């Protein structure tokens, strides 16, 4: 039986003084109300109401149950109200991990809007390219960029990321342009050390043909902006997300390479521990990220 619903019916009968009043309140028949009260009494193993042809009266046990039921129903209503407010206006501390370059270049720009929309949240933001341990580092949600997230985590795809292979005009004037992915093996490369595939760069052409090349980087680094700086100085070829190199490409400071080929698909993901117990604060953050990404696509279109 639905004990909470039975409590509500019992309280309505007591406060209305009759089965008829409770039936009107719940838009049902008096017979249905009578059956629910009888089922409640059977469940509890006590007589709650004394029935006569003229009136209803509570037994001593029924009076005690009425007072407790009133309090329980009030507590439930207050809890629902609090949770309802929490869903629409979450509060508390939200701990977020964001990759360093993405955090400074993209995330920082949308953060004021998120803060304005959810002023009840306090934020603790970790800018790091390392794959934080969500449990041990007490992180609620992490933004990650790659071909696929860890299978041990729940992931929500936020937006695609284009990986661009490029170099400075000064480097290309000195070393020439690679024509195919295999040519990269003979070039100076600057590589992101946290890449899941290591020093193997995989490409696809417009026909879907896959080609992988093992590069031997002159420099490894765990931050894309540092590699960008080296590339701008003519230090070699980099393979970096569009949000890091887009401005340099637009002004000609970096030149895209192997344009008939593209790197394996990458995405921005929001990753978290549990879909079943997703807190309102994490949910609104992820929804905000998806919304912002969708707005960006619409602006480009």
Please, what is the average pLDDT?
88
Radius of gyration: 31 Å
- CATH uppermost class of the largest domain: Alpha Beta
Strand content: 15-25%
Shape: rod-shaped
Order of helices and strands: HHHEEHEHEEEEHEEEEHEHEEEH
Q: Based on helices, strands and strand pairing, what is the structural class?
A: alpha/beta
CATH fold category name of the largest domain? D-Maltodextrin-Binding Protein, domain 2
Strand order of the biggest β-sheet: 4-3-5-15-6
How many helices? The count is 9
- Name the CATH architecture of the largest domain: 3-Layer(aba) Sandwich
Distance between the termini: 55 Å
Describe the structure.
By secondary structure, this protein is an alpha/beta fold. It folds into three domains: 3-88, Arc Repressor Mutant, subunit A, CATH 1.10.10; 92-160 and 267-300, 3-Layer(aba) Sandwich (D-Maltodextrin-Binding Protein, domain 2); 163-265, D-Maltodextrin-Binding Protein, domain 2 (3-Layer(aba) Sandwich), CATH 3.40.190.10. 43% of the residues lie in helices and 25% in strands. The protein contains nine helices and 15 strands. The chain has helices at 3-16, 19-25, 30-44, 60-88, 100-117, 169-175, 224-232, 242-250, 280-300, and strands at 49-51, 56-58, 92-98, 121-127, 141-146, 154-161, 163-167, 189-192, 200-205, 210-214, 219-221, 237-241, 255-256, 261-263, 266-272. Strands 4-3-5-15-6 form a five-stranded mixed sheet. Strand 9 (200-205) and strand 10 (210-214) form a beta hairpin. Helix 2 crosses helix 3 (30-44). The model is unreliable at 297-301 (pLDDT under 50). This is LysR substrate-binding domain-containing protein. Pfam families: HTH_1 (PF00126), LysR_substrate (PF03466). Keywords: DNA-binding, Transcription, Transcription regulation. Residues 1-59 form the HTH lysR-type domain. Belongs to the LysR transcriptional regulatory family.
């Amino acid at each position: 039986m639905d004990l909470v619903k039975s409590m509500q019916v019992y309280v309505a009968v007591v406060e209305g003084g009759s089965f008829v009043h409770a039936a009107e309140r719940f838009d049902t028949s008096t017979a249905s109300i009578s059956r629910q009260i009888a089922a409640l009494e059977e469940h509890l193993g006590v007589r709650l109401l004394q029935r006569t042809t003229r009136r209803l009266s509570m037994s001593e046990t029924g009076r005690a149950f009425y007072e407790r039921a009133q309090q329980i129903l009030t507590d439930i209503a207050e809890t629902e109200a609090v949770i309802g407010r929490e869903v629409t206006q979450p509060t508390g501390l939200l701990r977020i991990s964001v990759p360093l370059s993405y955090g400074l270049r993209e995330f920082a720009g949308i953060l004021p809007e998120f803060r304005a929309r959810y002023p009840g949240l306090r934020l603790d933001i970790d800018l790091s390219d390392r794959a934080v341990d969500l449990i041990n580092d007490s992180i609620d949600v992490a933004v990650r960029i790659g071909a696929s997230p860890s299978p041990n985590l729940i992931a929500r795809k936020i937006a695609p990321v284009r990986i661009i292979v490029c170099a400075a005009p000064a480097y290309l004037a000195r070393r020439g342009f690679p024509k195919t992915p295999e040519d990269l093996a003979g070039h100076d490369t600057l590589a992101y050390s946290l890449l899941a595939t290591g020093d193997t760069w995989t490409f696809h052409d417009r026909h879907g043909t896959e080609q992988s090349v093992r590069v031997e980087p002159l420099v490894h680094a765990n931050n894309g902006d540092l590699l960008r700086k080296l590339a701008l100085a003519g230090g070699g070829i980099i393979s970096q997300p569009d949000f890091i190199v887009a401005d340099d490409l637009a002004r000609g400071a970096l030149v895209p390479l192997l344009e008939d080929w593209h790197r394996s698909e990458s995405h921005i993901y929001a990753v978290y521990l549990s879909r079943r117990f997703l807190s309102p604060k994490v949910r609104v953050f992820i929804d905000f990220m998806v919304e912002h990404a969708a707005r960006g696509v619409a602006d480009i279109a």
